[in-house]
Structure formats: structure tokens, C-alpha cells
């Protein structure tokens, strides 16, 4: 690993500190180096706060040291006036003479920092650890390119794919350590989402219960607004609950829920299901950039058959149950041949206190 890669690696590590906190902005870290020594560091902590480059520049007490230095940043410095001024201008004014970038910004509105800095006489290098930089901002890229949240399938099941015992009860299939990891995943994503049947059968709270992690927004897909006003989910943080329903559902109940500080999202229907494009747009409009979908069976089926999922965390307990009277993880029509099955790529397997976690990525080719 050469010097540029070493410092870019550090920029990426800094960016990771704000994982789950910068939506709708990307994760960005910056490192300033002079004569082989790091003189400044920073990362973007939250939308509306200073960007990583400005944080790094501000961290250098003696501004004379910036003259002739190199800044490493995993994403192209922005070139537009948004909530903050352009970072490209801040770099030019600072006296930094070399900029090393992981990847170009895919947001056309923010792009152009490379050209502006080059025209100011700065030496700019692009593409250092680009694959790692893209992986870091996979959520932001999905939001920008496909105009949808980064949807993650999370399921806990028996070895034969059942997510419940007889009657639909699905609590505590996997170990306590696996459940703790799920709570961390909740805290690292914008939202956790379930279908109304999960609320009716399991009555979950859907909060993150690991100290140091933030609370996710909680989304319930409830086309006919069947959710009971006594549901456990309403006992905490009602202002971060989002009920996705149809325009045809009970207006009086919508008003009651809104009076409880619950957010109501009216979504168009496509046949008997939510229109996936409208659902994606409205979740993004509510700054839900990444969404951990926790079921149940029909909800996973909806996301799978529409090819909405980007990634999966599949937890298997080392147990087998009968399937009659239980729910399978994927509630939609079976394929005719094994070749038609949905495949996971870049798969990793990990043992967690006797459970098996399979992590992988889906091919996303839209959802006609």
C-alpha cells in the first residue's frame, strides 16, 4: 500500500464514524498531510454541519501549515452552495496544493470540484481506493442513481426457512447475540420497516436497544390502516413512526394518529399493493436513505418480487421445524426452476453464538 492509499484509508475510517447519521448526505472523511505528517483531520458528522474538508482545515491551528499541503478525501469536494458553501472554494483559499480523491461525486448538483480546483492550479488525483470509497457510500449511490432507499432484508429463521412457529409467532428464534447485532443494524440505518401483519402478530417496539446508537425511524406498511391504537410501537417515540397507507383508508383514524404525533404517508396503489416507485420516493422524501426491512413473510415477498432489495442479513438458528402452519421467509409464488431463484452475490458467512449469519448483495434491476 503506497502513501496515498494509506492516507485515503484513514479518510475512509474517519468517514465511518458518522455511519447512519449523515442522511441525505454521503459519508466523507478528510486528512491533511504536510511533509509526511498528518496535520489535520475531519469528517462530516451530520447534514447541515460543516463538511469533512472544512472540518479538517479548521482542525489545523497554524493555518500557515496548510500552504503546500495535501488533502485526502474519499469523495470529490462539493462545488455548490447548499446548506454549506462549496468545499472546493475552501480548499483553494486554504493554500492546499494537492488533492487526492477516492471517487467523483455522483450527485450532478454537487459535482465540479475537480475542475474548479484544477483551474486554480491545484494538483488533483482521482480514483485512489475507489472500490472502497464506493462501498462506503453504497447507500448514497443507491439514493442518487436509482432514486430509492437502500433496502436491506433482515430475517431470523429456522434452517428450513420458516420465520415462525405454528400460528405465526416469530419471537426469539435466534440467540441473544444475534438479536443484539440486529439492534445495532437498526441504529446504523435510517429506518426499520415491517408490514402490518408483523405488528398484529408480534406487537414489536422496533426500537434500537443498544447504548450509543441512535433511534431509527419506524415504518409500518398498513394499506387499510388496521394498526391498533394500543399497539406497543406507540408507547415510545411516536414522532418517529411513519405509517404508510392508502388514500382510501380511514380519514378519521389518520387524524387520530396525527394527533398522537405519528406521521402518515399516503402512497399510491398498484393493483392490491403499494406502488414501489411511489413508496421509494415518499420514503426518500422523509430522509429514509437506508431501510432495514424486518418482515414479515408477505412484506419480504413484496420487496423480493419487486427487486427492491439491495442487501440481506439472514440469521439462521441451528433448529428445524415443521413448515405446516408456519410462515416461510419469502411469501410469494415459488419459481418454476432453480435457475429462476433470486441469487445473493458477494456472500459472507459468520457464526454468532451458534447461529449462522449470511450476508450478501442482490442484483437490483428495477421492479417492473
Output the radius of gyration: 23 Å
Give helix % range: 25-40%
What is the spatial order of strands in the main beta sheet? 10-9-8-7-13-6-14-16-15
Tally of DSSP β-strands: 16
Query: What is the ordering of alpha helices and beta strands?
Result: HEEHEHEHEHHEHEHEEHEEEHEHEEE
Instruction: Give the integer mean of the pLDDT values.
Output: 94
Number of helices: 11
Query: Which runs of at least 5 residues are low in confidence (pLDDT < 50)?
Result: none
Largest sheet: 9 strands, mixed
Straight-line distance between termini: 44 Å
Give the class from helix and strand content and strand pairing.
alpha/beta
Portion of residues in beta strands equals: 15-25%
Overall, the morphology is: elongated
Primary descriptors:
24% strand, alpha/beta, five-stranded mixed β-sheet, 16 strands, 368 residues, nine-stranded mixed β-sheet, 11 helices, single chain
Descriptive overview:
This protein has 368 residues and is an alpha/beta fold. Helix content is 27%, strand content 24%. It is built from eleven helices and 16 strands. It has helices spanning 3-16, 52-59, 87-94, 113-119, 130-136, 138-146, 176-188, 196-202, 251-259, 276-285, 297-305, and strands at 29-34, 37-43, 70-75, 98-103, 123-126, 150-157, 191-195, 217-221, 241-245, 263-266, 269-270, 273-274, 290-293, 309-316, 345-352, 355-361. The chain has a nine-stranded mixed β-sheet, sandwiched between helices. A hairpin with a 2-residue loop joins strand 1 and strand 2. Helix 3 (87-94) runs parallel beside helix 4 (113-119). The radius of gyration is 23 Å and the shape is elongated. It starts with a helix and ends in a 7-residue tail after the last strand. The model has no long low-confidence stretch (mean pLDDT 94).
Amino acid at each position: 500500500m503506497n502513501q496515498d492509499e494509506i492516507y485515503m484509508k484513514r479518510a475512509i475510517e474517519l468517514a465511518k464514524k458518522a455511519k447512519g447519521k449523515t442522511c441525505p448526505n454521503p459519508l466523507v472523511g478528510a486528512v491533511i498531510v504536510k511533509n509526511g505528517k498528518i496535520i489535520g483531520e475531519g469528517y462530516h458528522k451530520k447534514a447541515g454541519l460543516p463538511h469533512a474538508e472544512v472540518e479538517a482545515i479548521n482542525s489545523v491551528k497554524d493555518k500557515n501549515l496548510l500552504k503546500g499541503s495535501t488533502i485526502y478525501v474519499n469523495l470529490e469536494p462539493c462545488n455548490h452552495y447548499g446548506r454549506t458553501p462549496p468545499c472546493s472554494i475552501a480548499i483553494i483559499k486554504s493554500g492546499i496544493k494537492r488533492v487526492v480523491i477516492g471517487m467523483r461525486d455522483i450527485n450532478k448538483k454537487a459535482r465540479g470540484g475537480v475542475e474548479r480546483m484544477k483551474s486554480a492550479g491545484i494538483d488533483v488525483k482521482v480514483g485512489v481506493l475507489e472500490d472502497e470509497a464506493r462501498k462506503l457510500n453504497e447507500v448514497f449511490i443507491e439514493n442518487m442513481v436509482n432514486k430509492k432507499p437502500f433496502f436491506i432484508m433482515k430475517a431470523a429463521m429456522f434452517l428450513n426457512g420458516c420465520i415462525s412457529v405454528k400460528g405465526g409467532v416469530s419471537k426469539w428464534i435466534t440467540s441473544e447475540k444475534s438479536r443484539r447485532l440486529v439492534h445495532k443494524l437498526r441504529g446504523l440505518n435510517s429506518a426499520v420497516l415491517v408490514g402490518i401483519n408483523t405488528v398484529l402478530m408480534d406487537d414489536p417496539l422496533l426500537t434500537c436497544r443498544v447504548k450509543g446508537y441512535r433511534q431509527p425511524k419506524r415504518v409500518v406498511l398498513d394499506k387499510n390502516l388496521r394498526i391498533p391504537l394500543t399497539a406497543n410501537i406507540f408507547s415510545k417515540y411516536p414522532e418517529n413512526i411513519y405509517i404508510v397507507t392508502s388514500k382510501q383508508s380511514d380519514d378519521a383514524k389518520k387524524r387520530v394518529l396525527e394527533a398522537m404525533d405519528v406521521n402518515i404517508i399516503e402512497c399510491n396503489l398498484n393493483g392490491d399493493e403499494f406502488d414501489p416507485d411511489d413508496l421509494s420516493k415518499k420514503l426518500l422524501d422523509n430522509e429514509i436513505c437506508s431501510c432495514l426491512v424486518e418482515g414479515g413473510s408477505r412484506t419480504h415477498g413484496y420487496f423480493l418480487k419487486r427487486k427492491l432489495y439491495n442487501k440481506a442479513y439472514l440469521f439462521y438458528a441451528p433448529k428445524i421445524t415443521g413448515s405446516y402452519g408456519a410462515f416461510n421467509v419469502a411469501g410469494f409464488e415459488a419459481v418454476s426452476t432453480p435457475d429462476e431463484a433470486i441469487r445473493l452475490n458477494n456472500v459472507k458467512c459468520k457464526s454468532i453464538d451458534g447461529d449462522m449469519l449470511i450476508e450478501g448483495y442482490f442484483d437490483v434491476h428495477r421492479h417492473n
